[in-house]
Amino acid sequence: MLSKFYFALICFGILGFKAIGQPAYPLVPRDAAIVSSDIANFIEAYKLLNPESDSLAILRENYFDKGSPGLKEYCNRHGLTPKNLSAAIKSAPEAYAEISNFFDSLPEFKEQVLEEFEKFGEIIPDAMYPPTYLLIGANRGIGQASPAGQLITIVKGLKNPDRLINVIVHELAHFQQARSLGFQEYIGTYSKPDNMLDLVLREGGAQFINYYLVRGNVEDYSQLKYVDDNEKELRERFEQDLSKQDSNYWLWESLDKNDHPILLGYAVGYKIIKAYYDNAADKDDAIKDILAITDAKEFLARSGYPIKF
Question: Whole-model pTM above 0.85?
């Protein structure tokens, strides 16, 4: 089973898009910016830390004050400060000590990301590529699509960078959803009533684009295997919970649960999306539909997946 932090990474795209016009980012995958300056700044700050040093001043002057636009956006959204970053370093020193090793392998990591972006462009030819900011946070696994770019904290993904790539591709899919729907309508979905199915399809769509269409690594999606193995009973529970708009078992509330795999709604959404794609005569049109779902109930009905709502 994938670790809990990984799914915490991919769920935070909900905090993203403000009411702005469409940003002008590259349309060519190889032109995408993978910004690692914040990692370099953190490493320099980390070298200066010792038991006698003023850790807050060092982090502020060498990491926060030199931060990229992505880091500043992240701090605004998630309240990252020198104080809570210093506390995180003290509580998990071994994790932060690994950052320099990751930095040494960044050329290979960036190349892997760009290769996935090229595959993404083959699937979605008109995709736009915002900058991806690789950030050091307070030992929290967060990935977020925002108009400023993709905000990806790396500390909890250092032992398995491939998972970070899953997160980046997932968030890139969310960015295309926002472009397809319009940024205002995209974020408006999160505040509209009775939106459980909308959110399940949105997250399932990003998972489907990542695991099935782009990366072809569905075998790594353990939540999907769990749903496959328990499909009948889970489908019945999903129908019941959907009728009550109770997403506790399925979406972000499940991150704090230990009695079942978390974020199973993503996998249910994946299965609905895949059913729609498999039944579509024109796969290119199906992808456009998946990116721009405005009527979740109609989409479910058209998918042919056997959930009644």
Answer: yes
Contact 143, 168 (CB under 8 A): yes
CA gap 279, 101 in Å, rounded: 46
pLDDT band at 47 (very low <50, low <70, confident <90, very high): very high
Taking only Cα atoms into account, the Rg of the chain, rounded to an integer number of angstroms, comes to 20
Q: HEC states along 194-230?
A: CCHHHHHHHHHHHHHHHHHHHCCCHHHCHHHHHHHHC
Average pLDDT over residues 145-158: 90
Helix (H) / strand (E) containing 265? helix 264-279
Q: Positive or negative CA dihedral for 22, 10, 90, 35?
A: negative
- The answer to whether 100 and 43 have CB atoms below 8 angstroms apart is yes
- Extract long-range pairs of 112-117: CB within 8 Å, 24+ residues apart: 112/161, 112/165, 113/32, 113/34, 113/165, 113/168, 114/29, 114/30, 114/32, 114/34, 116/165, 116/168, 116/169, 116/214, 116/215, 117/29, 117/30, 117/32, 117/172
Q: pLDDT tens across 83-102, in order?
A: 999 999 999 999 999 999 99
